[in-house]
Design a protein that fits this description.
It contains nine helices and 17 strands. The chain has helices at residues 50-60, 111-116, 121-124, 158-161, 169-183, 199-211, 231-235, 244-255, 283-304; strands at 3-11, 20-22, 25-28, 31-32, 45-49, 73-76, 88-91, 94-101, 126-132, 134-136, 141-145, 149-156, 188-195, 216-220, 241-242, 268-271, 274-279. The strands form three sheets. A seven-stranded mixed β-barrel has the order 1-6-5-9-8-7-11. Helix 5 crosses helix 9 (283-304) and helix 8 (244-255) runs antiparallel to helix 9 (283-304). It is elongated, with a radius of gyration of 24 Å.
Length: 310
């Protein structure tokens, strides 16, 4: 289990100014009590590692004091800029969720930039929101908990379920999804179910996936117009919000060359904090659909969690 040591806690009354070390800080749902950056937004608490500060000291040829880069918490032990949004830190009752890595630099309009001559926060500082409040002070340790993306795949096929032929589309979704998250250095856990074309079992598994807080749910099969094609009809009533543009774009892109692609009734949407995509039942379609979905999947996940990455 990785952790970072808190070297200093720092606050300021105005934004864009150097923060001063204090004995302790109180975290509330709005951020750090008495700090200028508290409020109902995603950058309530800022953290900067001594690892980043030391690199800057070497270039600046002078010592940098805790809080000079306007960080609320100065840490030691992990290169913070290598972490990811939605990772968390805990310390006793306190729980912080990373919302942003780095930020826009305001250059010479920033008091910190004017006083220090540069700023490392835009590249290597991280920002968090408070999930659970409490007291933090120097000497405490924050336990690092990486976000593990929970992915459920459901294959619907009478013939594959009864062993008449091999399920290839479900394993292909697993392969491509694991590769996608691995390339982004994001931990993932994938669970795959193979069921017959049974609407009751499908509804049960989708609801169970939601209850288990799956980040992503993929179904494959049952998106056509045949008598056993009911996947969109089962899933759609379970959605909190549909995202029609995703599947419309995919149908039009591939349907312009192969009109049969327009027959698919695939849908995408949101259930609580789960994203669900109903894909056709062929490996070729899985390849095509995921190629497009992966283009904006991370953005969708962050939007769903209320993170503004602009």
């Amino acid at each position: 289990m990785q952790s970072v040591k808190i070297l200093s806690v720092n606050i300021s009354e105005k934004k864009g100014t150097i923060k001063k070390p204090v004995g302790q800080v109180e975290l509330t749902p709005a951020g750090i009590k008495g700090d200028a950056h508290s409020g109902s937004w995603n950058r309530q608490v800022s953290l900067l590692g001594i690892e980043s500060i030391r690199k800057f000291e070497k270039d600046a040829v002078r010592k940098i004091n805790y809080g000079e880069f306007a960080e609320n918490i100065t840490t030691e032990g992990i290169e913070l800029w290598k972490l990811n949004p939605l990772d968390r830190f805990t310390c006793g009752e306190v729980e912080l969720e990373i919302t942003q890595i780095g930020k826009e630099c305001h250059g010479t309009s920033c008091a910190i930039f004017k006083e220090v001559g540069n700023c490392v926060m835009p590249k290597e500082g991280i920002f968090c929101r408070v999930l659970k409040g409490g007291i933090l002070k120097a000497g405490m340790e924050l336990i690092y908990q990486p976000k593990i993306y929970n992915i459920h795949i459901i294959t619907l096929s009478d013939r594959a379920f009864h062993g008449e032929y091999e399920d290839r589309s479900g394993p292909r979704i697993k392969e491509l999804t694991e590769q996608f998250f691995s390339n982004l250095h994001l931990p993932s856990s994938v669970f795959h179910s193979l069921i017959p074309d049974d609407p009751i079992r499908l509804e049960h598994l989708v609801k169970q996936s939601k209850e288990e807080h799956a980040d992503l749910i993929f179904t494959t099969g049952g998106t056509g117009i045949g008598p056993r094609d009911f996947t969109p009809d089962v899933v759609k009533p379970l959605l909190d919000k549909e995202i029609p543009g995703i599947m419309d774009m995919i149908r039009l892109k591939y349907g312009s060359e192969k009109p049969n692609a327009l027959i698919s009734r695939s849908i995408a949407g949101v259930m609580d904090q789960s994203l669900i995509f109903t894909l056709p039942g062929s490996v070729k379609a899985v390849n095509e659909y995921l190629t497009e979905i992966f283009r904006f999947l991370v953005h969708l996940i962050y939007m769903l969690h209320g993170l503004d990455q602009h």
